[in-house]
Amino acid sequence: MPKLLIIEDDAAFCQMLQKFLIRNGYDVDVSFTAQDAKTKFKATTYNLVLTDLRLPNYDGLQLLSDIKDVNPKTQVIVMTGYAEVTSAVEAMKKGAYDYISKPFTPEEILMQIKSALNQEADRQLDSGTKESHKFENTVDEPSENRVVVGLSEASKKLHEYIKLVAPTDMSVLITGESGTGKEVTARAIHDNSKRKEQSFVAVDCGAIPKEIATSEFFGHVKGSFTGAVEDKKGHFEAANGGTLFLDEIGNLSYENQIQLLRALQERKIKRVGSNKEIDVDIRIVTATNEDLTEAVENGSFREDLFHRINEFSVEIPSLEDRVEDLPLFADFFLRKANRSLGKNVEGFSEDVKDIFRQYHWPGNLRELQNVIKRAVLLTSGNTVEKEALPKEVYRSKESNVNVDNFSKADYEKEQIVKALKQSNFNKSKAAKLLQITRKTLYNKINHYNLDL
Ligand SMILES: Nc1ncnc2c1ncn2[C@@H]1O[C@H](COP(=O)(O)OP(=O)(O)OP(=O)(O)O)[C@@H](O)[C@H]1O
Predict the structure, then answer these.
(1) pTM greater than 0.90
(2) Are residues 100 and 15 in the same domain?
(3) ipTM of the assembly?
(4) pLDDT tens digits, 375-384
């Protein structure tokens, strides 16, 4: 029987949900505080945790990281209020399976839970099989590893660049907003290189605590520090002969940047606590969703390392900037969802297509994929209807419907200025209010030449 934990400070709601899930065949514990939850998930292995993002005295995103640190396989679904979609996207970036907006129906949550547990089972079955990342624009058999190229000019150019750089040994810096496909691109580069038979090791630099980063990268020998109970290979050794993908490279501490640079220059590493030098032959692919040149200018990122990792750079467009590709991706994700959920939904209603075109997709392809998977789960007929979409996706359209008579640009400008005033000109807060990323907000401010 799958073991679930609900973390929710509203005790009455929590107990009601617990009873409902027990009736549906799950073994369910509850916690009303983050502290109690931490004790529980350290003592018990849960298949799935359902947690509120807003908890008293503790950051819900931090709690999500804590859960994943204790057991990366535990699936996490976050429960959010309508206005918290940006945090929900952030939560998915940190490894949450999905989010569900309150209020939700018992059927909705049940389906999400089933889907999350199915995915975990699929993952266990799939582990060990390795399929290459193939480029294509057909969607007949949308396996996990297919890479849709897209038909827009931006996508074609991106694909050209990938094809050109993949067979070389150049280090590649991939930039793009969250969820645009940076990791998928890194894997495609590896799979189309002469290193493809060797390992591809992906490391999220944002998730490694500074104190253990050296040992994570270079390994350690038994007894070199408390907790080093046996010899351990680091990521450099694990990727030897292949490709090391460093995601969120901008999050590395200054000290770790120096160590990384040295390893890349000398092509040798030493495990923590050992004097033995080990030769490494790796190709580095890195990714970031922040502006590294700005980080170099303000001194938080080393310029020499920046040049070392940036022999070639590739920028992945946001979904908003390649809206022509949306139908292709939507179709691909629909078929993928059908396959993984054992369903046979054929397409989207005209209304849904319209909503998709108008929504700004702050979580990019990842968000589109999640929205479609959820919608497929909730759809019993042949076509995905508006009701199967999360409210925030179509609400943003509804708030736009009265502006057809005005110029879209004027309306957008007005909304940006309004959000900036409301947030006291704090751009991060304004971006949240507008439900766009900070980068998109900066681009729009430049685009409209707003003098602020
Ligand atoms: N070209 C593509 N074809 C098919 N699926 C894609 C493509 N690009 C991205 N995806 C899907 O979109 C999701 C997000 O992709 P990915 O994890 O590579 O994004 P990312 O930019 O690395 O995200 P983050 O910035 O959050 O780390 C994945 O589930 C991936 O399968």
Answers:
(1) no
(2) yes
(3) 0.98
(4) 999 999 999 9
